[in-house]
Design a protein that fits this description.
- The complex is a heterodimer.
- The longest helix of chain A has about 30 residues.
- Chain A has four domains: about 130 residues, ATPase, nucleotide binding domain (Nucleotidyltransferase, domain 5, 2-Layer Sandwich); about 110 residues, Rossmann fold (3-Layer(aba) Sandwich); about 190 residues, ATPase, nucleotide binding domain (Nucleotidyltransferase, domain 5); about 100 residues, Alpha-Beta Plaits (2-Layer Sandwich).
- In chain A, strands 3-2-1-4-11-12 form a six-stranded mixed sheet, with helices on both faces. In chain A, strands 13, 14, 15, 18, 21 and 22 form a six-stranded mixed sheet that branches. In chain A, strands 25-24-23-27-26 form a five-stranded antiparallel sheet, with helices on one face.
- In chain A, helix 7 packs across helix 9, helix 8 packs across helix 9 and helix 9 crosses helix 11.
- In chain A, about 35% of the residues lie in helices and about 25% in strands.
- Chain A contains 13 helices and 27 strands.
- Chain B has two domains: about 325 residues, Histone deacetylase domain (Arginase, Chain A); about 90 residues, no CATH class.
- Chain B is of the alpha/beta class.
- Chain B has twelve helices and 16 strands.
Amino acid sequence: MIIGIDVGGTHTDAVLIKDRRLVKKAKFLTRQDHLMASLLSAADHLLAGEDVSRIERLTISTTLSTNAIVEQKIDRVGMVISAGPGLSPALLPKFQDAYHVSGYMNHRGIEAASLKEQEIEGILDDFRKKGIRHAGVAGKFSCRNPQQEIRIGDELKHATDHVSLGHRMSGRLNFPRRMATTYLNAAVWSRHRQFVREVEDFMAEKRITAPCYILKADGGTIELPQSADTPAQTILSGPAASIMGTLPFVKPGQDAVILDIGGTTTDIAVLADGIPLLEPLGVTLGGYKTLIRGLRTRSIGIGGDSTVRIVQGRLAIGPERTGPAVAFGGADPTPTDAMVVLGLLQIGNRQAAGQALQTLAGQMNHSLPELAEMVFSLTCDLISQAVMDVIEEINSQPVYTIHELLEGKTIVPKALYVVGGPAAVMAAPLGQRLEYPSHVPENAEVANAIGVALSRTTAEVALLADTERGVLTVAEEGLQMPISKRFTREEAIGFAREKLLEKARRLGASEQDMDMEITEDQVFPMVRDFYATGKNIRIKVQIKPGLLSYLQGGD
Amino acid sequence: MGKKSKKTGLIFFPAFDWAISPTHPEREERLLYTQDQVFEEGLLDFENIVEYKPGLATTEDIDRTHICVPDAASVTTDSHLIAAGGAIRAARAVLEKEVDNAFALVRPPGHHAMKVVHGARGFCNVNMEAIMIDYIRRHYGPKRIAVIDTDCHHGDGTQDIFWHDPQTLCISIHQDGRTLYPGTGFHQEMGGPNALGTTINIPLPPGTSDEGFFHTLDHVILPILEEFKPDLIINSAGQDNHYTDPITNMRFTAQGYARLNEKLAPDIAVLEGGYSIEKALPYVNVGIILAMSGLDYSCVREPDYDAASLKQTNDITRFVEKSAEMAYQVWKERKTFREKIVGRNRSMTRRKHIYYDTDGISEEQEETVRICEDCGGVVTIDSQADTGRKIFAVIVPYLACPRCRQAGEEAYDKADRRGYAGVYFQDKDRDLFLVK
């Protein structure tokens, strides 16, 4: 049996799956002051009467790090930055304790200026003076050559509890995002470590020996101990949980849209050939744009509890939410109230909802049912319009080769899946507007926990081989090694695959779940003074987000 | 930021799967390091920098500008259609007011492609800026447009296309034609009789540095723009004036390029040449994008930048000042020059020998324009290339006067197909393209 627990912002969902069947589900209010307690009581509930020795895996998703960042309950981080020339420091992300050092790499990963030892010594002095125990090191183009970051890290680690290195965060290019990601990773490191320890203690106490996984923002899982040094990856796993939880109900191989209609917002996600799309660079959290791999979601400020108002004689919905629907004791009318008035939802105080909407109806010279219908209809219009915008945006995403421009994939959704409170009521009218069939998955109320339970391990490896310099780099793995001038694209792909397998195994992937995919495959002949001097080979491989093969072959 | 930020559209299309030939400077690798630098600097994350996907230019878009022999499809590949489509996308973003300005970082370049196209010259088949300008006029109405060609090579193609167009100001600054391809671009090339002075050439000596470029900008380009009052300024933005460029001899820097774009404030910039793909382009392009979007570019610098070694000599300074003065004189005295050149002629003919270095084709051309006070004047072209193809073309200009229109229509009707591979009629005013 496998267990999934999602400790979300409002609710904690938990499921227990046995022989491919959901046998237990539970939903609790999350204790904001004590996430660990929420997690443990959900686990206790599921495990009551179960034989813990039969647990095959336990997976957790938590908002712990996300909340810590949003609420600024994080450690003070000394950020050591080697930016070199380029963007003015005024345009880069700012940190309270930032130390700019000399030395930088150029775009090919060639050291353009070297480090100065005395600068690092000065920084260590300052760390001691200020009591800084956590550090981040981010260098421009460190994903092309991590040596300077590694050297700075070596100097800092003796004087600190933890050092996060930029090149370990992602193999992708984007220096400001690398800075932000490195900072966040260092800032939540100790909190996450504490969490890992508490979960391990709990498992020991309950005598659970099965592996424990944690969900990442990209909808993949990694074994809990493996997340210890890269906690940033576990940020924003909530939206990923709900998308992954819908996947078991999606027809495989299809382009589709998943909507999660919540109280404040509606999250839109898109599947291409049945696989959730990833953010091109990374997720954004608390104003930080990062390189954290995450599922691509667009959140719009329209949900069941969005405030309905009249602006210049016309109805307007959201993006603010002043509280719950009037039907549940709130102050301002909401789409939920409209659905209650229309009898679409049999919940809450219908009379109160009616009174609140009656005021608006009066102002607009409509009857109450007319107005309720208008609100409901506008809510569906706005959401479906946002879905169309998202599809349009994905399809007009820039590409850089003629082949992709002429032959590139276009997303044409064939189905809509709706989860969240009003899913059952809104799915049909939304599907009508979008002109594709809509579905409401079973057990939608615990979709998040299902997603958490069933997601497989994901990993990515980015490789750069520069045969002119005779150097191969897989920065995220801290790897640089000499290669022959005759190193080929095929060898590069082979090597990248090998590294990906190693990494995925280390992170806890099982052999049957190594669904590899090449996401970048480019070879550039290098020519200097009209003579071919080498090749610049760029390969990215990944294990894409998906469900455990455990599920396949069942009903 | 300190400076006023602008919303900038970026059309980035490096065509990573296209080369003229494997070791040609115009190859897959050309914008690779530029892309790396632009991505690594995180420029696309700025709210005021928006990336657009290019579309494909259509045959109609090309036929509106060029006379392609035998036809547009034969002289273009998908990469040309995308590069032209990228320039058009940039123009649309600006004219639809989605952005304040736009930069089409596309390849291959186009500024050596002339009106008649028998093949490729100077790595160019079709002219991206010219196709874009004709598209703008077709879709957004008549506009006075200034093209400032800042490539190190004379923008001879753009000059040829707008030679007779008084509504298009073409200013080219470039390394002196006696020392560099294509060997033209001297002061006395000042436009056709109906558009005299709206072609301005400023040849600069090898070794010109930032100082020299800013002298011409301050003393020629900006004052002329002030008087010409264009609706749109287009930078035909070559990056081969850079001190590391392998096929030219100038000393311009990334800082220089950024500042030039800040001062020139183009509405649209379109990439042309520039082949120092590792040492110049990444820094020059980051500088231009920052400058166009009004962001601080003061920290953009090449790793090997050394101010002292890039200073220009006093001789060069004097040469630059003299060249600038002569160029400005062309503009100031354009009416006098016109009277002198036109005299009592009712039409004027120029004969051109055009060599297509990239494709190894030679063309002999005779171009006749009707002298006209009211429009750019109807043009007829008789062209023969050593491919064996001989063509005749009639071009009715934008805002054609009734008499030029009538003359053009008669010339096309009268033209005998015999002896020609094709007879073409291009009516820019009515957006009509006929072949017989």
